[in-house]
Design brief:
The complex is a heterodimer of chains A (about 90) and B (about 375).
Chain A: E1 2-6, E2 20-24, H1 28-38, H2 40-46, E3 57-61, E4 64-65, E5 81-86
Parallel strand pairs in A: 1-5
Antiparallel strand pairs in A: 1-2, 3-4, 3-5
Chain B: E1 2-6, E2 20-24, H1 28-38, H2 43-46, E3 57-61, E4 64-65, E5 81-86, H3 97-102, H4 104-107, H5 113-122, E6 124-128, H6 134-144, E7 148-152, H7 177-188, E8 193-197, H8 206-211, E9 215-218, H9 223-236, E10 240-246, E11 249-255, H10 262-265, H11 278-281, H12 286-304, E12 313-318, E13 323-328, H13 350-354
The chains are: A alpha+beta (about 90), B alpha/beta (about 375).
Chain lengths: ~90, ~375
């Protein structure tokens, strides 16, 4: 199934200049794995050395933070959305 | 010929609670007479004993005051709409005839009306940063009739601000932003009281400044001030209409007391240098126009108590794809500021917390 991914424009250089693209995955877990295998630099920006999501970053699956999910091996349906958000300060 | 007559809230008791009724007539005077014939209770509301229309009743044809036309003899044609707007009683609470004219398009909306307009007039909104976001927010809030607008900014206008900071113009370069903001607001709506806070917002002064306002609109451009404003709004129990921008993208949400805060999303700022500022990464000039206008809209909704404020959700705007996307937010019970057992109850040292200098604070 195709997972629609959206990343912050400031990180587009980590994904060959794209901010929106899709990845094929059976589950959310697999989708995240595939995302970071394909774009390893993205992981560096989103996770710290201890593999924890950085505190100015959130990952949303269909509008809900993945931090709220009990498990990540949930099936992906075509059209599901993964949105990566990071704090920006501009005003 | 039947004309649609718009009945304001206070007079609907006489029209069976209908907000729009039909009455025959080819002039305003005829329509009023026929309206009175249909709804006899309206007579004493609209007319003096001598048969003249009461002084505090304002009449509009398609939004234009009949005093600027032919008064009661103003001709009506099919499809015209006649609006009736009484200046509300209540001493200092009443709307003046000037206000009735100025805010007519608000007054005919059931969500605003005379009561909502008076709420706006009594509202006090602090705008932190007279920059990209603060400009449209301040201008729309002023135009909408918000009674008191505070502007917190200690910067002076730079020519590089003008591509997006529409409170300021070329002739303002070098002037304090609060001064050009005050002039622009006065030009839009001289009845607004502008309070200029021409000083950096700090851990020492922020509580005292924010305490005087009902709502805070966040238009700051740096992380230390974002955490400062967030924390102080929580301490003081003030709703914070938050926005931030970068290049073609914007984020918007409302932190209402008791419903979460900025720290629930972002417990800590990015490491210094990890996320550039607008000065470093750029921002399309119109982008803050969109997000700042949405902030004004959210502030007005809070003042009026209408609609569904952006509480518990964040709007992401992508100007390149022209897409709005909504994310759900949750309160963090372990938040050190708004959680169940807060450990931060006074402003801290935000420069140290963010690990960045605050010298660019509030540039927008």
């Amino acid at each position: 199934m195709r997972l629609e991914v959206s990343i912050p424009p400031l990180l587009r250089d980590c994904a060959l200049g794209q901010t929106r693209f899709s990845i094929t995955a059976g589950t959310l877990d697999e989708g995240l794995q595939r995302l970071f295998e394909t774009y390893p630099l993205l992981r560096v920006h989103l996770y710290d050395e201890a593999e924890r999501l950085r505190k100015h970053v959130l990952i949303f699956f269909n509008g809900e933070s993945i931090a709220w999910l009990d498990r990540l091996d949930i099936p992906v349906r075509t059209g599901d959305r993964l949105t990566i958000l990071q704090a920006v300060s501009g005003g | 010929m039947a004309i649609e007559v718009q009945i304001p809230g206070p007079l609907r008791n006489y029209t069976g609670q209908q907000s729009r009724v039909q009455a025959e007539g080819s002039t305003v005077g005829e329509v009023l007479q026929n309206l009175q014939a249909q709804y006899p209770g309206l007579g004493s509301q609209l007319y003096e004993a001598d048969g003249s229309v009461r002084r505090f009743i304002n009449l509009f044809v398609n939004g234009e005051d009949i005093r600027g036309q032919n008064g009661l003899d103003t001709q009506l044609k099919s499809g015209d709409k006649l609006g009736i707007l009484p200046a509300m009683a209540g001493g200092s609470q009443s709307l003046s005839p000037d206000q009735v004219q100025r805010y007519h398009r608000h007054l005919i909306m059931p969500e605003v009306g005379s009561r909502g307009q008076r709420r706006l007039a009594n509202a006090k909104v602090l705008i932190v940063g007279a920059g990209g976001l603060g400009s449209p927010a301040a201008m729309y809030l002023a135009a909408a009739g918000v009674g008191k607008i505070g502007i917190a900014d200690f910067d002076v206008v730079d020519v590089s601000n003008l591509q997006r900071q529409i409170l300021h113009g070329s002739e303002d370069v070098g002037r304090p932003k609060v001064d050009s903001a005050r002039d622009t607001i006065a030009r839009i709506n001289p009845t607004v009281e502008v309070v200029a806070h021409n000083e950096p917002l700090t851990s020492q002064n922020a509580r005292e400044i924010i305490r005087d306002y009902d709502i805070v609109v966040n238009g700051t451009d740096n992380f230390p001030t974002r955490y400062l404003v967030n924390d102080v709004c929580q301490f003081e129990g003030k709703p914070l209409v938050d926005g931030s921008i970068m290049r073609f993208d914007g984020q918007l949400t409302v932190y209402a007391p008791g419903h979460g805060c900025y720290r629930d999303l972002f417990p800590a700022p990015p490491p210094p240098g990890a996320v550039p500022s607008c000065a470093e990464a750029g921002v399309l000039g119109v982008l803050p126009g969109i997000v700042g206008s949405l902030q004004a809209l959210e502030a007005i909704k809070l003042i009026l108590g209408v609609g569904e404020p952006m509480v518990g959700r964040m709007l992401l705007f992508d100007g390149l794809s022209m897409e709005f996307r909504e994310l759900k937010l949750r309160k963090d019970p372990n938040c050190p500021v708004c959680g169940e057992h807060p450990t931060i109850t006074e402003p801290i040292d935000y420069v140290q917390f963010c690990g960045v200098p605050q010298q660019t604070a509030l540039i927008g």
